[in-house]
Amino acid sequence: MVKSIKLSDGTTIPWLAFGTGTALYKQDCTDATSLALSLGLTHIDAAQMYENEDGVGTALSASGLPRSALYITTKLNKISEGETVESTLRSSLKKLKVDHVDLFLVHVPTQHTDLKKVWKDMAQLEEIISLGLENPVVNQIEYHPLVADKLAPLIAFSREHGITTASYGGLTPILPSRIKSSELSTVRENIISTLTTIGSTRGSATPNQILLKWLQSQGVIAVTTSSKESRLKEYLDAENLAELSEEELDTIRKSIGGVHFRAFASFSHMDENN
Q1: pLDDT score recorded for residue 16
Q2: SS3 140
Q3: Residues with Cβ < 8 Å from 44, sequence gap 6 or more?
Q4: Which strands, in side-by-side order, build the sheet including 164-168?
Q5: Which residues make Cβ contacts (< 8 Å) with residue 22, sequence separation at least 6?
Q6: What angle do CA 241, 243, 248 make, to 5 degrees?
Q7: What distance in Å separates the CA atoms of residue 182 and residue 38, rounded to the nearest whole number?
Q8: What secondary structure does DSSP assign to 164-205, as a single string?
Q9: How far is residue 62 from each of residues 30, 32, 34, 37, 271, measured CA to CA in Å?
Q10: Where is this site: Lowers pKa of active site Tyr (predicted)?
Q11: CA distance 225 to 247
Q12: Binding site for substrate: what residues are annotated?
């Protein structure tokens, strides 16, 4: 069973989640989600924007797992004219084939002209256990070693206020599909070398596993995905590795050589070097 992190509202959340975005974005994710569930990945990270909540729901229903064994996250998309927070949530619940979600996040806060009203409306819905905003318990962001230095103030602020960080794109530094420039390729090679060295002290743990352990060692929820059984098992096995030491965390930080790179949405005030 995947270990859990206690949130500030008293609930718990599995630290490793199966994401239905990225490669599964706007794709039928039924089989991939079913595979994840069968392997013990019971925290499913969905979103209205991904347009595949119905596939998640089919997999959840077919799994035979009781609702109490599942942790379901979904995210509020931009609200269209004539819709409300409540109506979009009820649509999600119908597609997911559940009567409540464990965590409801605002996917892209800048899409909402009256964010305070959105937060208030979310807080009034009984079908939501925990919120990502408004008495926030989770803030999901792109987080990995290549953005860690510039996000350090945000991580510190979140910890101070009892907000748990969740990471998407946590494996970005070692993915050739994300790291394309010659400068970043050199950094990628450095990071892989460092992660491999650290992994060798843990029974040949893979760079993927050490990056996931890098997140877990900081109390960060890791959202990742794959349609390959071997890869999902690899991710799950990361949990059994020894925690990274402060020295190892520092070694990983130094391996990037001060380079900053965000693979997904970028922000001019902090991504001038992107």
Answers
A1: 98
A2: strand
A3: 17, 18, 20, 33, 36, 37, 56, 60, 70, 71, 72, 73
A4: 128-131, 101-106, 71-76, 43-45, 16-19, 221-224, 164-168, 138-142
A5: 168, 169, 225
A6: 115
A7: 40
A8: EEEEESTTGGG-TTT--SHHHHHHHHHHHHHHHHHHHTTTS-
A9: 10, 13, 8, 10, 43
A10: 75
A11: 29
A12: 107
Asked about 25 being catalytic, the answer comes back as no
Asked whether 246 and 170 are in contact (CB, 8 A), the reply is no
**Domain covering 138-274: architecture:** Alpha-Beta Barrel (3.20)
The whole model's pTM is what?
0.92
Residue 270 has pLDDT above 80, yes or no: no
User: Is it true that 1-136 and 138-274 share their CATH fold?
Assistant: yes
> How far apart (Å, rounded) are the C-alpha atoms in residues 235 and 135?
31
pLDDT in tens, 173-215: 999 888 888 889 999 999 999 999 999 999 999 999 999 999 9
**DSSP tag of 10:** S
Catalytic residue among 50, 71, 143, 168: 50
Q: What is the pLDDT of residues 38-85, one digit of tens each?
A: 999 999 999 999 999 999 999 999 999 999 999 999 999 999 889 999
CA atoms within 13 A on the CB side of 111: 10
The amino acid at residue 181 is S
Using a 10 angstrom Cβ sphere, with 0-12 exposed, 13-18 middle and 19 or more buried, the burial of residue 163 is buried
Residues 6+ apart with CB under 8 A from 95: 53, 54, 56, 57
- Where are the domains positioned within the chain? 1-136, 138-274
Q: What CATH topology corresponds to 1-136?
A: TIM Barrel (3.20.20)
> In terms of Cα–Cα distance, which of 236, 240, 238, 241 is closest to 39?
236
Is 168 exposed, middle or buried (CB count within 10 Å of its CB: 0-12, 13-18, 19+)? buried
CA angle 27, 3, 212 (to 5 degrees): 60
